[in-house]
Amino acid sequence: MVSKKTATVVGIGLLIAVNLMALSVSASRRYYFAGPANVAISFTGPFQEIAAHAIRFASDIWHHYFYIVSVARTNDRLEAALKGATQYQNQCMELALSNQRLRDLLNFKEGTPRSLLAAEVIGRDPSPWFKSITINKGLSEGIDRGAPVVMAGGVVGMVTDAANHYAKVLLIIDQNSAVDVLLQEERARGVSKGASVDRCRLDYVLRKYDVSVGDTVVSSGLDGVFPKGLRVGAVEKVMKRNAGVFQSIYIKPFVDFEKLEEVMVMLPLPEDLRNVGR
Amino acid sequence: MTYGFHIIVGFALIILQTCFVPFAALPGDMYDLQLALMLYLVLFRPMRETIFAAVVIGAATDSMSSGPYGIYSMTYLLVLVSGAWILRFLQAGNRILLPVFVAQGVVIENLVLGGACLLPGSVVRPPADAMASLGEQVLWALLTGAFLVRGIRLLHRQWIRWMDALFPRETEREEGRALRPTFGLATGTGTRSA
Q1: Could you give the ipTM of this predicted complex?
Q2: Domain range holding B160?
């Protein structure tokens, strides 16, 4: 007869072996474990949503009532900024109109605008090794894997898992995330990869390009996920080594990932939905 | 009933970890709070309860993370094995060793995460600040881990009392187990502190 202790040891050994196999498959991203992931997200999601609302409520009380003294000062500053912004907007409108006229002359094909869906951030990744968030919109709202997630400031990330009413978004600062980008001034291509909490690394930018600190980085649209022209970040550090084809560049994303509360999910285009159905 | 307690505490810790801890903006990276539950189970509860919690809570945490699926289940199973092994030689439940016991769980978890990067064909890459993050997590574990384990233990005792009031016959047996726990693999070697 097998003793209880031996059975326990064998059982744990088997569990570890099965788990190791599952881990090696999922680590290579060859297979996607949608089922169990979605069940747990759906179960935890409502509680996370309640917790997120409670935190936001408490934070709102703090900021709206206790900080009211500074509101008048902020109001003055914002009014001054608004005047400047209105003037700038007029200039931009003029430029947009002239751009449109020139595009019409050249018969440029206009990109189809994608509809945006607002979602609230209800949770973050439990591990400091990975950078992802959970949002309160999912499959039933039309969100699916691969949907780009943005904010007014810039690119946030991409949906990697979607349950019925919740979805998981991999942030661009995650080390496993990559966005095909362009340096707006130089038009040099590169790939932005997550480096740390508030930084991305810009790889594969050739040495011949003269990149300066502060240059804006935008999505190139060539990765098939993010549309062209979305703001990603600004160049923070440039290092040109004596040897090597590429230069080493770090960028600071425009989005403050520590204070992320709401995001916008870009819904798939109708033609993409038709392809999914095939 | 006691399995229900482990699941409730596990999910509560997931929500604490994913909602409240990021909002609190604590200095440095916080360790995985589930480890405290796992180590409480290793120290004070029978092995079958620990295995059950490792599988269920591991699967749930895996699905909340963007890391490869199975990384947390693997971590909790290895923490269970290492914990049971340590208990053969040390009385890790005492006040001095308990923080160190939680810290070793944090180290094991980070080793598993690092190991996932080394698996054949793995596309997972460690963050640039992995070592700094490990240091911060260990520090947090040393500072708060023991309190969390003891807090879970107090909560479990209270749970047993509540269940005893609601379902007297079933929880009498539970309470008996709570008072005289086994150390699973470490049969007959370890003794429980208080």
Answers
A1: 0.75
A2: 2-175
